[in-house]
Amino acid sequence: MSKARKAKAAEIRRLLTTEGEAVAGNTQGFNQGRYDSVESLDDYSGLKDRAREIKEDAIDRLPSLIEELRESVEDNGGTLYLADDEADANRYIREVCAEQDADRVVKSKSMTSEEIEVNEALAEDGLDVVETDLGEWVLQLADEAPSHIVAPAIHKSREGIAELFAAEFDPADPPETAEELTMFAREQLGELIEDADVGMTGANFVTADTGTMALVTSEGNARKTIAATDTQIAVAGVEKVIPTVEDLQPFVELIGRSGTGQDITSYISILTPPVDSPTIDFDDGAAAVPGGSDDREFHLVLIDNGRMAMREDEDLRETLYCIRCSACSNVCANFQQVGGHAFGGETYSGGIATGWEAGIEGLDTAGEFNDLCTGCSRCVDACPVKIDIPWINTVVRDRINPDVGLALDAVEGLTPDAEPGGVDLQKRLFGNFETLARLGSATAPLSNWLADAGPVRAAMERFLGVDSRRDLPTFERETFRAWFRARDSTVSDPVRRVVLYPDVYTNHVQVERGKAAVRTLEALNVDVVVPDVGASGRAPLSQGMVATAESKAREAFADLDPYLEADRDVVVIEPSDLAMFQREYERLLPRENYERLAGNSYEVVEYVYGLLEADGELSALSAPESADGADGGERVAYHSHCQQRTLGLERHTEAVLDRLGYDVVTSDAECCGMAGSFGYKSEYYDLSVAVGEDLAEGFRSDVARDRTVVASGTSCLEQLDSLLDRPSTHPIELIAPDG
User: Which pTM does this prediction carry?
Assistant: First the structure.
């Protein structure tokens, strides 16, 4: 495993150096474009709800919709072929090309055709296969795989493409600017399209009622491949079928905005093939030859290739709702740094790729990149059909776990989790952090000294993959719960009563944070209890240890339930634990229990905001010495936690700080890169730091360099402390009255 981790780390470093800058610039641009574009929609959330409803219905009725589509296509004069797998699809496509005595096939962009490797299959028959999408054509010339679902050559720079064209074509006047490169490609591809015999496209959507296809592209090449040839082959997965033409509306509104940030994609072609436009004879002065659909052949090749099995898989089924927009890639901090050549499998890339690759290629392929998903959940909000991508990644990770690492069946039953013996030791270590923390606190400070000793760090890196460059947490001898038990409450007539959840880090490492939360709540006349309750299950869930996470969730709910019965609100300091209560517990608990806990749990500063809105005494909290902002008030640079943003809670912290008189600048970096255990793992340390540097640079800027650094999440604080030369603090510690 040590060699495998070193090899993965080396490949990530290579991609960070060679492709990272181009990938980051493009994906971050797409992502910002999405934010800007969806602001113009009157009902963005409603459109997403409608799109999801259509996909849910379509996948539920898929067999009958396919038969309805078959009738529609045949009534239109075309042929529908339902292919079982890659080999079946390629056999049929090769037969069609052979019947046409084709020499050249021109293709518009299609991930499904990439999936079945149709180019290679046709090349075996001696056919010249030409990609007409600019990005795909560049990669075809370079003999490289796509790095992005929508923008396949996103990792290529303008200079790199210019060098490629110069080497491949040796033009007399080599193109250099973006416009020159595009025009050069247009001329080259135009000649190739003119001499083509068969045009092949994908299909973003196919409607069962009329056999209508929707093609969404940024270039006009898809239309050209259809118009310039008298035989069209459309290749699509069965999941692309939707019930009616009217159902296209929400997808047309969402797909461009979600993928590239365009209000509407450059070309949206809605056609019902065989098209009735006349064929073109380029040898006769590009004159249109009279005719119509009778002159054209149309073959729709619908491909199963594991999809019907995914449809029956409760956890992979949602993957089939995917409309291949790439929003999950663009919003993902890890993808932004390394692209699909690291964060992807045989065909698909980004967060949703785990589901596709697991269902189509198998768990081995998905396992090669699955751990690059940190479960931050920002992709869920970005997804236009609201797929729970982190859950798919977690489930696949769970299925992979018993088959990797050291198959030490002898440890089964001897570890504090519910997993089989084959789970990788690194995952087992991080998944059982609660047990490690208990031991650490019980034996502190000896445990801290021992863990930081050189030989121990070297052994941890070699055998457990814990990077020696990363500082380890320092355990406190007196836990937060022990501190609370030893004190008396100061609230006699409370306005609210809460149970303050002692997450593992607050209880064993960041004890002062917990004390600050208690002082703050009590200062606002809230009665606080800190119970003896176990971990939320976030740590094992992040490692794909679903059985253990479910066990932890049930235990945590059982411990908190009496307080819910007593009408206490649950207040949580760590956003990732709150996300467990409000999101992941829906998968791990009976619905009634989940809804009860989720509906009565709050992030600590969110709760403070609510108390202040209900006429809480602002003067009870710690404000800057001068509350006049730039004229003397304490200046703060704030970073919110990923899952805090997903839950829509970061504004509460900003509002509380502002109300107290702090001069607040909020970071626009979306992720710290630490992501719990991710930043500790030797194979991902460099990637974690690369993501973190984007955040750190903002705090080093002219506007933020002299400000107090404030962050809401444990991981964020750890990363900032490691990258900056000044300390960071949690907002609850900033506003808490003195103890």
Answer: 0.93
